[in-house]
Amino acid sequence: MTKWSYVKDRAKYGVAVCNFKQDGPHRLRLTVGETVHILQENEDWFFGCSTRNKTWGIFPKSYISVKESIIDKTGPHEAIIPREPPIVQEITSVIREWGAIWKQLYVAREPEFDVIRNMMYELIDWRRKIMSGTLPVDELKELKQRATAKIDMGNAYLGLDLVVRDEHGNILNPDITSCIDLYRAHEAATQRIKLMANSSLDDAKSQKLSSRYVHSFFVTVKNFVCRIGEDADLLMTLYDGKEGRCISENYLLKWSRKGLAKDLDQLNNLRVLFTDLGSKDLLREKMYLICQIIRIGSMEFKDQEHKRSSHMQRKSSEGLRRPFGVAAMEITDIMHGKVDEEKEYFIPFVQCNERDFIDNLLRKVLASKEVTQKEHKGQGLWVCLKLLHGDLKQVKEEYPHLITPSTAVARKMGFPEVILPGDVRNDLYLTISHGEFTKGAKSSDRNIEVSVRAVNEKGQLIKNVISLGCGMDTIDEYKSVIYYHEDKP
Length: 489
Fold this sequence. Notes:
Elements: E1 5-6, E2 13-16, E3 35-41, E4 45-50, E5 56-60, E6 64-66, E7 69-72, E8 79-82, H1 86-107, H2 112-132, H3 137-158, H4 179-198, H5 201-210, E9 215-225, E10 231-240, E11 245-246, E12 251-255, E13 271-277, H6 279-282, E14 287-297, H7 311-316, E15 320-330, H8 332-335, E16 344-351, H9 358-367, H10 373-376, E17 380-389, H11 392-398, E18 408-410, E19 451-453, E20 477-479
Parallel strand pairs: 13-18
Antiparallel strand pairs: 1-3, 2-3, 2-6, 3-4, 4-5, 7-8, 9-13, 9-17, 10-11, 10-12, 10-14, 14-15, 15-16, 16-17, 19-20
Helix pairs in contact: 1-2, 2-3, 3-4
C-alpha cells in the first residue's frame, strides 16, 4: 500500500463529479457538485473534508475534479477560496438551493416546476459562458447583470430571501454597509424585480442597444457552394429593402473555379466587419445581407465546354465580367437585437438567366418569401453573423477572438451618425445606373462594357485608386458587368 502524502496547494480544492455512496471505514459520502478540501493523497484516494458539513474521510480521486483555488493560511486553520468569479459561485449555490426545492415541486406536481426548470437551464448556460473566459468585457458585464436579475426574480418567485445588491449586481456586505443604505438597496431591488416580472428582458435589451451610438455587423464566410466552373467575384453588402439601396461598401471575395477562395491563406479567415452603423440603421424596417455573384470568363456560360478553333477567339472572350446570380438573407431580427446568438446560416443562391439584370433578380428574390429547393438546388453561402456594439477601435479591443488583423472592414456609405476625432475619409462612390447605346451598323444589340479610370488634369492615369470592395487591393481600372446583347443596360 502506498504511503499518504500531503497534496500541493494547487490541488487542495475539488468538486465531486459523481455520487460516492460507498459504506466502509473512514469513507466520506459525497454527492454531485459537493466541494471538498483535500489534504492528503495516495495512488487512488484523497483524504479531506466536505466544505458543506466539515465531515472528514477518504474518497476516490476519479470522483473529484480539482479546481484552482487560493489558500489562506493567515488564521489558525487554512481556508480555501475558489478562484472562480463571485457570480459563478453564486450561480452554483443558487442552483443547488433551487434544485432541492425543484424536486419537491416535481413530487407535489406544482405548476412552478416548469418555470424554475427554465430559469435553472438559463443560469447553467450563462455560467458556462462566463467560465469559458472568451467573453469580452461589455458582454461579460451584461451577462452578469442578467444572471443576478434572474436569480433575484427566481428567489422572489420561490418566496426565498431577497439578496441585496448594488447597481452593478454585486452583493452588498452588511458589515460595511449602513442600515439606511441596505434599506434603500432593498427597496430598489424589490422595484426592479416587479419591473422584470411585468416586462420582457428582450425589450429592455433592444432599447439599450438602440441608445448606443456606433455598431458593427460581423460576418464570417464559412463556405460557398455553386457550380460555376469559372472564377467569380462575390460582392457582399448591407441592403435596405425599403429604400432599395445598399448602405455599406462591398466586401469583395475572389472565388476560384476550383470552388475555393483564390487566396488560400484566407481560406479559414474570410471575415468582414461592416462598421459605422448608427442606432437608426438598427431600426430600419427591412435589412438584408446580399451577395452578388459575378462570373469572370467567357461571354456565354456554355463556351467553356467547347474548344475554340482559334487562340485569338479564345483570348478575346476570356476575362469578361458576366452576371451570374444573387444570394440574400433578411437580418432585421439580428439588427433589432432579437437574435443574439452567433450561429451558422445558409443563404440560398439564385442563378440569373442569360438576359436577366442582376438588380431585377435581386428585387425578385427579396420580394419572394422563401427560395425553394428547386430554385437554389443546394447552392449558396454558409455564414456566421453577429451584431457587435462599439466603434472599430472598441470592437478590436473587446472582441480580439473575432476581429483579427486580416479582417476586412467595410464602412457605411456616407457619413456615420457619429464622426469620431481623427476619422478622415476621402471617398467618392460611383454607381453606374444605366446607359443607352446605338446599334450602329450591327443588326443586333451590342455587348456593352464600361471601363472607368481616374486621371489627373493632364490625362495621366492615377494608379491604384479604384476599389471594387474591401478585402482586396485597389486597381487602376474598373470594368463593368456585360449584359448579353443589351444596348440599354
